[in-house]
Amino acid sequence: MIKRLFLLCTALLLSNHLNAAVNVVATLPVFGALAQEVGGERITVTSLARGNQDPHFLDAKPSYVVALNRADLLIHGGLDLEVGWLPPILVQSRNGKIQPNSPGNVNLAEGLNILEVPKTALDRSMGDVHPLGNPHSWLDPRNAKLMAANIYQHLAKVDPEGKSYYEGRLKDFLSRINQKISEWERQSASFRGKKAITYHKSFNYFAAWTGLDIVDTIESKPGIPPSSKHVDDLIKHIPQEGVKAILVESFYPKKVPQFLSEKAGVPMLLLPTDTDEYGIKTYFELIDYLIREIGKTTG
Ligand SMILES: [Zn+2]
User: Fold this and answer.
1) Ligand 1 centroid to 298 CA: how many Å?
2) 160: which DSSP letter?
């Protein structure tokens, strides 16, 4: 009898614990991976986009609205990264907990040093998709540390009972990533000053950290496909500038980069910008992957 009562109590405690898990929705898998580092077993994470999708242009499915409706915490990149699809479904979710400026809304751009901020509101030099500056900030691991701390602040607000648990996990994450940053900086020492072009400005924070010199993009401007004049210019500039590699985010069309690679005799690398692709599960594996692959062309 006592044993049966004990089992019943354990089952109740377990189901309570599961019910109490903080329901985190991340726009991108990589943001979900950072949340998992801090939240551990106290959270469940759903990511809306897949790792191989362009974060600017996503077809919002009805399931996204359902996920947002049930969320305790929404984590997004900020700087209008997801402006093309997130705001309408956030309204449709009718979930007051995760609306902008609520404790359950995490804007990961907060506190970061933003690159390429337009000088004036009317400056269109950043194209159509980076109106507030470059939002692809997560491939600099120094930013990932600030993002994890930001997620911690919000988790501690929406789940105060877990505060010390989250604090312990944040400290552990920071200590592990600090060690990895030293290792990554040794491994990427050969990147400094080496020239590359990218399809979109997705690797500019990674470049600012490693010293890789991104001299141009295949897109004419962020969000604007390459014009034939721009492609002709690139065919001339790639050899003139001594470009070592063409880095292409996995979700962009391959035709123009392949053509440039063949014309200019420069390798094209298809690279992840997110977890949940190429078998990559964690933030650490993502940066490991980038450094290993880019390292093959900078030696
Ligand atoms: Zn972009």
Assistant:
1) 25
2) G
22-26/43-47 β-pairing: parallel
Burial of 280 (0-12, 13-18, 19+ CB in 10 A): buried
Sequence letter at residue 258: Q
- Closest C-alpha among 192, 199, 97, 208 to residue 154: 97
β-strands 73-76, 195-198 pairing: unpaired
Task: State the pTM of this model.
Answer: 0.92
Task: Tell me how far the alpha carbon of residue 56 lies from the centroid of ligand 1, in angstroms.
Answer: 6
- The tens digit of pLDDT for each residue in 220-275 reads 888 888 999 999 999 999 999 999 999 999 999 999 999 999 999 999 999 999 99
Parallel/antiparallel/unpaired status of strands 73-76 and 22-26 = parallel
Instruction: Specify which residues 196 forms β-bridges with.
Output: 214, 245
CA–centroid distance, residue 134 to ligand 1 (Å): 7
Task: Report DSSP state, residue 194.
Answer: -
